Amino acid sequence: MAQIEIRDVSKIFTVGDLQIRAVDDVSLGIEKGEFLSIVGHSGSGKTTFLSIIGGIMKPTSGRVLFEGKDISSLDDAGLSGYRNNTVGFMFQFASLLPILTAWENVLLPCLFGSGCDVNDKKRAEELLHLVGLGDKINAYPSQLSGGQQRRVAIARAFMNAPEVILADEPTGDLDEETEAEIMELFKKLNREQNVTFIFITHNLDLARQAQKQIRMTHGVIKEI
Amino acid sequence: MPAFTFLSFALRNLKRKPLRTAMLVFSIALLVSALVFILSFVRRVDSVIKVTSDRLGSDIIVVPAGSRGAAEDILLENKVKSFYMDMAVMDKLRHIKDIDALTGQTYLVSIVGQCCDVPETIVVAFNQDSDFIIKPWLVKKLGRKLGKGEAIVGSESAMNISVGLTEVDSVLFGNMFKMLGVLEKTGTGLDTAIFIDESNIGDILKSGKTILKPEQISIIFVRVKKGADPVAVAGKIEDSIIEVDAVARKDIGRNILDTLRDLNRIFIVTVAIASMLSIALVWAVFSAIANERAWEIGVIRAIGARQSHVSRFFLIEVLFIGCIGSILGILAGTAVSILLAKHFMLLKNVTADLGMIERLLIALISFVAGVGICIIGALSPIQRLKKMEPLLAIKGD
Ligand SMILES: Nc1ncnc2c1ncn2[C@@H]1O[C@H](COP(=O)(O)OP(=O)(O)O)[C@@H](O)[C@H]1O
Ligand SMILES: [Mg+2]
Prior knowledge:
The structure holds 2 protein chains of 2 kinds.
Chain A: E1 4-15, E2 18-30, E3 35-40, H1 46-53, E4 61-66, E5 69-70, H2 76-86, E6 87-90, H3 102-111, H4 118-130, H5 146-158, E7 164-168, H6 176-193, E8 196-200, H7 204-208, E9 212-217, E10 220-223
Parallel strand pairs in A: 3-8, 3-9, 6-7, 7-8
Antiparallel strand pairs in A: 1-2, 1-4, 4-5, 9-10
Chain B: H1 6-16, H2 18-55, E1 60-64, H3 68-77, E2 85-86, H4 88-94, E3 99-110, E4 121-126, H5 135-141, E5 150-153, H6 157-161, E6 168-172, E7 175-182, E8 194-197, H7 201-207, E9 216-217, E10 219-224, H8 230-240, E11 244-248, H9 254-302, H10 307-341, H11 345-348, H12 356-387, H13 390-395
Parallel strand pairs in B: 4-8, 5-7
Antiparallel strand pairs in B: 1-10, 1-11, 2-9, 3-4, 3-10, 5-8, 6-7
The complex binds adenosine-5'-diphosphate (ADP) and magnesium ion.
Adenosine-5'-diphosphate (ADP) sits between chains A (13, 15, 20, 22, 40, 42-48) and B (392, 395, 397).
């Protein structure tokens, strides 16, 4: 069995009389350590699909199994644990808390896990160095550029050493050089630690660097 | 590096909008101070009435018709008033069934410069042979009877006359009196009075410094026989002696009590409205906070915060506002109740002050109310926030 099993997942949004099938009866297996890219027009359902896998949105129907366990059967503590430990989510949009420094934002996931110890604090610092923000540890989000904020969010996704990274256009507003560096980092972690990567991108060149590529159209997926 | 805990997180959130936080704290403080003041007020008046009727040692008081209120003013509130009836009432009372004992008192008003060298106060002339009202305290203090030309003062007026440790001489109604000492505090209106024996009245009348006429008396205290109903006896007294009012012990202070009850009702309604307003205010503020921070909550939920973590963040903020507001309110309310007590007619002369334990209890009740109101007001916005689906919260739906 695959690490992540997506079975007959649909998500329907109802806006007034209108029903939008953002995700339309999708089934897919993702193996541990797989490196998967998703492309598609805007509005095709990519963010919705990724969010369902990450347990931050419930599907209208269908199931997501992680290592055989249906994540929709988990209670609040179980599901929070899944989001906290198992997956690392990188949002398409700004997602840093303005009252926390870069370092504290990276540290945040451990606050909701087993609590932050000295090792966690060191790890958060190392992650910031890794994404090239060693000199911005105590900066607040408002003091960082959009690209820098995104890199902090990337570091945060790695904080609890997740088994799966879900990245929604992670390099969207990064310059090409940084984008390449981040991709190298992803590939390295994927190779060395067997972390599963699923990332959405607009950039077809980036998408092609993945082992497996998926195109999403009107909520339906097709392997390419 | 700064501490990174739930507490520091919540405190930093409070600092984001310091003015809003301060306004909320201020509102809670206002409410709690009103609560403290009102509870103190009600308790004070309540206790003074209870203490007075308990200590009076009399089942019925008999006063000139129409002077009931004045008598209560003296006994309960230390007001300075005088009223007189014919001493013959005493004899008429003796013919009424079920009366066990009687004693009369005459109230004289002292006025500086005119008759006396003590500030305005009530001078109580009483009959030491029949007395059962003053005696218990007098015996405790002096161990003997008051002689002619001797006086003893209530605990409150001691300050005015500056007796206490030493014996002082004072002129009362043109006669010299030796102030023997100070009675123990009783918590009744008589604490501000000066007591002399009835035998002095003749000399006082002779001096012409009072409006009192011969053969007059102010008040008669009545003790009924065992098993007799004071209310029934009082009714009988009023029926057979038309020139007097008779008030049974449990009716003493009734008028004041009724006024107080009305005040009480007004206060309760006021506090209820204020509490509701405060709840609405807290609700409005926390709804605004919930909307502002919905996406932040969505983010922390997405990276693993449980619903209980979200509640904890907000509860710390709510408790902080509630506790600081309540503590400030308790301090302000206690101060106001002590200050206003000096200017409030009903409380002005009420001697019974609240004990430490009573004050603490009032503080505790008000504290719980203040914090409770914050929690109640914030509950539904917090509940709504923590139940939101993380992604939808982030996208702001
Ligand atoms: N909360 C929502 N309510 C209504 N419609 C939504 C909501 N979220 C997304 N949609 C709709 O679902 C479709 C897929 O959205 P999304 O997953 O964000 O697409 P993508 O990430 O590929 O741009 C779009 O048509 C979008 O308008
Ligand atoms: Mg999207």
